[in-house]
Amino acid sequence: MAKDTKERILAAALDMFSQNGYSGTNIRELTASLGLVKSGLYKHFKSKEEIWDTLLDELIAYYETRFGSMEHLPPVPDSLEELITMTMRMVSFTVHDETVVKTRKILTIEQFRDERARELATKYFLTGLKDMFAPLFAGMMDKGLLRRDDPAMLAFAYTAPISALIHLCDREPDKTTEVMAQVEAFSRHFIRIYGEKKK
How distant is the alpha carbon of residue 74 from its chain centre? Predict the structure, then answer.
């Protein structure tokens, strides 16, 4: 039961932080939304800061096991079409999974207030994607699927526009279908330029 209450507190904090930010969320409203009193919440967390830190830890683990990370890289695609399929699967997950969407909103709001949120925003919105795709692209070059180039620069050129389109979905969710089509069109454009032509 205690674990269940702790999870409920974190779920409610995720909702409130993603809507109001850290400073815009107060403990009284958080506990009221759960039907708890403050003392009930403090049995599980010593402070709002502890809720914040625990929530970030859980969100990192959630994202990295489901989406990928340097420790959980997807396999190197065996074809250019497989790169598109993998990209579309990853983008679909990140724009449709409610926990990931709320995480992105929290990091967007809090990156200017909190050092850890800033570091995570940089990692998840920019450097982490580039770092994940660089070894995939190096592997695709070794397989003769992509022309030889700097894999890190190629990964940056590939992931930065896709990341920007994902953020558009957060601001304007009604454009998600259009964004998915744009991501696929961009992926196909990318492989027309960088894909190795079969002799």
Answer: 15
Query: With a threshold of 0.70, does the pTM exceed it?
Result: yes
Residue spans of the chain under pLDDT 70 = 1-3, 197-199
The gap between the terminal CA atoms of the chain, to the nearest Å, is 64
And the tokens for 189? 């454009």
1-52 is classed CATH 1.10.10.60: yes
Interatomic CA distance for residues 91 and 72, integer angstroms: 17
Token readout for 161 is 């526009």
pLDDT of residue 1: 40
- Residue 62, burial from CB neighbour count under 10 angstroms (0-12, 13-18, 19+): middle
The number of CA neighbours under 13 Å toward the Cβ of 1 is: 2
pLDDT value, residue 3: 58
How far is residue 130 CA from its own chain's centroid?
13
Helix or strand holding residue 8 (H, E):
helix 2-20
Domain at 67-194, CATH from 1.10.357, 3.40.50, 1.10.260, 1.25.40: 1.10.357
173 CA to centre of own chain: 16
